[in-house]
Amino acid sequence: MITYLWLIPALPLFSSVILGLFGPVMGPRVSGAVGTISVGLAAVLAVSIGLHWISHPPTNSIYEQTLWAWITLPGFSINLGLYLDPVSLLMVLVITVIGCLIHLFSTEYMHGEDGYSRYFAYLNLFVAAMLLLVLADDLAVLFVGWEGVGVCSYLLVGFWFSEPTNGYAARKSFVVTRIADIAMLAGLLLLSTKLGTLNIQAMLTGAVATWSAGSLMPTVATSLLLIGGLGKSAQVPLQTWLPDAMAGPTPVSALIHAATMVTAGVYLVVRTHALFLLAPHVLDAIAVGAVITLLVAAFAGLVQSDIKRVLAYSTMSQIGYMFLALGVGAWPAAMFHFLTHAVFKALLFLTAGAIAMRLNHEQNIFAMGGLRSKLPLAFWAFLIGSASLAALPIISAGFFSKEMILGAVAAAPMPGLILWACGILGAVLTATYIFRVVFTVFLGPLKTEVSGSYGVRIAVPLVTLSVGALVVGWLETPEGLGNQTIFSRFLTPAVGVFHHLPVSFMIPLLGFAAPLLGIGIAYVLHRNGTWARATTTMPSKLTIFIRSGCGFDMLYDELFVVPYMTLVRVLRHDPVDSMFAGLQYLAIVAHRRLRAMQIGQIRRYASWMMAGSVATIAILLFS
Amino acid sequence: MMLVWLLVIPMLGGLLAWPAGRFHSTAPRIISLIALLSDLAIAIPLLHSSADIAMPGTWMAGFNAAWIPAFGMSFRLGMDGVSWLLSVLTILIGLFAVIVSWHEIDNGAGFFHANLLWSLAGAIGVFIALDMFLFFYFWELMLVPMYFIIAIWGHENRRRAAIKFFLFTQGSGLLILISILALAFLHQQQTNVLTFNYFELIQTHTSHTFGILITLGLFIAFIVKLASFPVHVWLPETHTEAPTAGSVILASILLKTGAYGLLRFVVPLMPAAAHSLAPIALWLGVASILYGAFLAYGQSDLKRLIAYTSVSHMGFVLIGVFAFNIIAWQGVVILLVAHGISTGALFIIVGSLQHCLHTRDLSRMGGLWGDMPRLSSFGAFFILASMGLPGLGNFVGEFLILRGAWAVAPVITIFAAIGLIPAALYSLVAIQRAFHGPVDETRDEHDFGMRETSMMLVLASAIICLGVNPQPILTIASPALNNMQPQPTTAMLKEMGAG
Amino acid sequence: MIIWQTPAGLALALFMLGLLGLLARRSLVFVLMSIEIMLNAAGLLFITAGMRWGNPDGQIMLVMVLNLAGAELALGLILILRLRNRITNLDGDAANILRDVP
Amino acid sequence: MNLQGAVPLVILTILAGGLPAVVAIRRSYRLICAVTGLGLLAALFSIPYALRATSPALPELFTFNALSLGFIGLILISALLILVLAYSYWQPETPLYREEFPLLFAAGTLGAVALASAASFITLFLGLETMTLAMIGMIAYPHFRPAAEEAGLKYLVLSGMSSAFVLFGIGLLELASGSLNIAHIVASSAADAASQQMLVAGLAMIAIGAGFKLSVVPFHIWVPDVYVGAPAPTGAYVAVIAKIAVLAILIRTINLPGANLSASMSTLTTAIAILSMLSGNLLALMQDNLKRILGYSSIAHLGYLLVAILAAGSIGQVAVVFYIVAYAVTMIGAFGVIAVLSHASDVRDVDKITELRGLFWTRPALAGVMTLFLLSLAGIPPALGFIAKMYIMAAGVHTQLWSLLAVMVISGVIGLFYYLNIILVMSMKPSDDAMAVSILAISIPNRLAIAMVSLPILAFGVAPSPLIALLKLMFD
Description:
The complex is a heterotetramer.
Chain B: H1 2-23, H2 27-46, E1 61-68, E2 73-79, H3 81-104, H4 109-128, H5 132-141, H6 143-153, H7 158-191, H8 198-201, H9 208-226, H10 234-241, H11 244-269, H12 271-298, H13 302-321, H14 326-357, H15 368-371, H16 373-387, H17 393-408, H18 410-418, H19 420-434, H20 450-468, H21 471-484, H22 487-498
Antiparallel strand pairs in B: 1-2
Chain C: H1 5-24, H2 28-53, H3 57-87
Chain D: H1 7-25, H2 29-51, H3 66-89, H4 100-117, H5 121-139, H6 146-177, H7 182-187, H8 193-214, H9 223-229, H10 232-255, H11 263-284, H12 290-310, H13 314-341, H14 359-362, H15 364-378, H16 384-398, H17 402-427, H18 435-439, H19 444-462, H20 465-473
Helix pairs in contact in D: 1-2, 1-4, 2-3, 2-4, 3-4, 3-10, 3-13, 3-19, 4-5, 4-10, 5-6, 5-10, 6-8, 6-9, 9-10, 9-12, 10-12, 10-13, 11-12, 11-17, 12-13, 12-16, 12-17, 13-15, 13-16, 13-19, 15-17, 15-19, 16-19
């Protein structure tokens, strides 16, 4: 079974090619079916590999499959190979299963759109690229997938291309991540030059053998890789693209900008964690950066009025938690939060999409209201998702993963407690902003006409994910709640044993309390109408600042965009060309001067000749 | 002898095509196709042959005959992996050029195809000549037909563009002539033999300054052809004004002759001098990458935009050549082929756009995806390919170049890599302005038909193959590139790596 | 022995005179005459040279020069006559239909 | 008296002398032309015979060796080609007596041959003046064309002036050295400072005359006007034959024992070469008259030639001759195309560039040939001019004349512009009134002449070896 591993990325890729070539001929029904079934098959394959893995893990829990030699040169070779270990298996499972659900959801959501088959071609291509990214056994191949998902993200964000703002958002998302990717590319070049290979395992072994912890090389290399990861995962300072990326269709946001692609940075760090361990300062920086991100994003989430933007900021914030875990070396915690986040955030996005579908694509939460009775399915799904996001104790998956992270952070050395405190603050804010949305959208009076109904292709993904968001947390529980460690044991071969370090009792207690407090705040402010009033009154400068994501966009506009545009405008007509035109002008001036001598009069001609003769005789006689 | 046929067939084809155009406008097209296909049939089997005359190094085929004995100039040809790749690329692109001109060129088809075939023959000659004067002869020879193609069948400002093209390339060509003459006479002083044989001249010892001067002459000429900053100025105008087939040949083949010249002559002939020039060359490469990218962003003429991207890409080639190692050179070869394919395809697409929209102005496009989905998707695909999307050919080339250059000059490599960011900007903006945006309802639909679609599919699969499995190309080029790296260079490289 | 410098100097002076005349006079007849003067100056020089070295070469050359001067004068006068039909006077500066100044 | 070596000269003398008699007997244009042609041919074919001469003929007056006979051959071939062009140029409807033109033609050629083989200043002067006077006649031949008349007058006055300079120079030389024998003067050295100064001054004045005939800067000023005014065949004659003859005597003098280019002389030549290359090409830059362009271009080409002359040595010598050959054939070809397109009875030739518009579409073959000529002038393969240019560059590189080479490159680029512009105009779509040009049928002799010119340009441009071998014989 496991020998068919290559089929997992190949299936969606193949289907993407088919859809790309013959999509317009096939019609929407077949296109949708082909797109979904291919990912479905990949999911089935992944699940069966996963089941088989649990019962009969391969030696060292690693399965490698070399497809072909990509580049073989003396001193430098890259094999196109797949590398399956628990971490990548987990990623593959999440990508294929959630991907399949989202495809299914899309078949109904995108009904009647122009470019239906194009949509599925892109989406399949994305899944294939993402799978390649996580399965790659070589950083260069990983980079192929890495850029591949970036391009698919670009294409899908700009899917409704007739609206120029969508195009702008798509370009922004691609360019910002591209900037990060260049840093990552530089990192790859550095690693491959210094270590002679980009094969991840060989490279890690080489790095550990040649570099000492804390030395310059690993610090530089990991910094470069990290910048790549930060860009892809929308972390400060490269986070500005994610809110804009919400211009794409909602299932796309669910798949790419919540569940899978944006967590690629987390995956990258986990995958190369041995290298990061050689650079402790970088890990510290990750942790600090993560805290900044999660707070900035959480604050920004508090003042958004577009439901998808709230979710976008919450994605940023939650990935901040993952990075926080990475910063303190709690790899399984990060992966666990990745898993739960993928489930509940996909659920939230899909639900948001499902709501908007019925409200004539309305996304402003203040234009909604009282939808609880009108859309019970959406209400419950959104509630479960929000609870999980807010980490509502015990009943939600998000609680367990966030608890695992915060526990690990609190146990970390000195700055640990400060980071933890920020994490708790973030948790309060998370609960506040998401329940702000829940209360605003589902309680109160009905504001917008509701039309249509949900088909089975909407319902199945929502229900499945809701169930997931409720139960998936029980894979790993803290001591007081059964001390289940299936998840970390599963990952142990790849990232080492994870110890739940003992911490003061206050820590889990506050972890319990923070979400509840947040929900309380949200409810109180909802009841006294603060949320609703904020939309009608002139927002304060501070609010505007926070709403725009703490001014990063403006800063970057001033710092980069404006100078770039000025430069382009200055250079536009090719100053070098004018330089050569100057030479041409010179020649023409000389031509005119000389030509003026040809006046046609014999006497004048004779004078010129006379002058020439005098000069000649003079040169010969007196030199 | 096969190599001679490789040159003779297109030459004769051209001679035949010209008068044939008088009888029927399809006749020259058929003749060109036949000539190029038979050329291809000659070229392909050479891959597995080996030269029947003795030449140092690894050669697939060789030929030698006396030409101008008074100067020791001979008609010496030789084909190794790099020559083979570029020659086959030339023939293939030539085929595409014939096909795209099928409907575009409707007057003077005979003369057009004659020029097309002659310029291709000249380019092939450049790629396989091993006598330096013969090389120069072909180098000049391919200009004239190209000049006609631009000047007669080009767009609005074709006259200016054609003359500019010719002045730049020919003027710099004279520097080649002076350089090779100087080299040959120097060689004569040392050995009492006047010869232009590549293998003999490669053993000439030069003093430092003189070597640099000779190399500089060659270098300037080649970077003019390569269209590196600051001598790129002929390229945007020429590419823009040339007819589609002309742009395709210019971008896909003629630019490559510059890179080929650098690889084949500048580097092996005087490695020490080339090394002294390397810093300048590398910085020029960086400047080209960035400058080309900035300017591409600012253009509103789609063809001009693509032309500037060529400047940018050729900057990578320049860096790769002067990184002096096999990895970078392999990258150069891949990038040359990939750029030939992707840019060729882009010019075909723009040509077809112009054919139905009668404009190349981006501000008058937009929303084409709605009207012409096939054209637009291929357009977007090739723009992304030329942007260096991993998994496609151009990326492999750029990656290998950067990888090779990093070992020698990390700072320059970083700057070059930064150039990939503006590359993304101009690529995406081109897609946005041409294909995305609101649909213009008043336009007629002229999407790609079977002919164009199949052409595009072939090119697209080629670029994918190149990206997914570049190894065959690397294997073909490998012995040739090893030949080009003389022993002292390797030693020097180690020195540089240490320092 | 006669000093050769004096006639040589005279020849030079004549030559200069002819040259100046050529540059200064507008009338084509005078221009022709100036050329004749220059040629004759050369003739005088030949005679002087023959005298200095005592050989007949100089005199031979003089005959040739006279021949040439005659031929040239004849040709020139024909052309001037024909020109006169066109421009009605003998102003050399007026004969300027061939020029490259727009 | 052994005249074997002088046979070509003798034949030409007989021809020039006998032609008036032929005219007197029967006024037939065809007959006269045929006789002239046959005479030239006979002279040409007598060259191998003359080469086998064992003793020098008329050693006091002429030198007939491989070098001079080679140049004579070149003059005769060029003359023959021009004669063919001239034959069909003067059409029957031309309002003049056509029969005297071959007369002048033969006389001029006789003068050129005498000049090329002169050993004494007497013959040099005689040859020069015979040639010049005949050329004035040929320039002003179409008396109904005011331009031709004016060109004749200008040439007469200015060449009279230059003749005076040459004569005065010769006089000074004789005064200083007491001899009129070129070889003797070259080999001797001055007795005292005054003679030395006279020698130099004489040399300078002769150089002025040579510069005038070669039309190098600053003595180039007459060139464009005369080229434009003269009928096309005469233009070719002035551009080619006069220059070959002067170059022949120049190169022969340089090759004489004891001859060396003094420092001041080579400074002067360098300056003249640089000025000629640059101003020739610059002057032609935005020109719209084809003959004028050819005139300016010939200035530049003579500049290139001077580079080769400066680059002495075995390569330089052959380079000069090779370049002359290339220049001669190409110029004849270019003027030939003008001649072919023109009507002698019109008031001017077809020499505006715009009149060539659309030639590629109306007369592809003629346009192709013209392109070949222009490429040859510009020095681009596959034309002969390319090899010639290479030859000169080789000579320059060999003697390391870097600054001259640099100027050559720059002016070469400037030059390209106007050559290309002509090609461009020919390749443009013809305007409607251009059909007039295309109506004219090209006569068989013209076709022959053009083909005979273009064939070697292409053939030797691709495989120059035989030509090089032939020219090398001249210096053995």
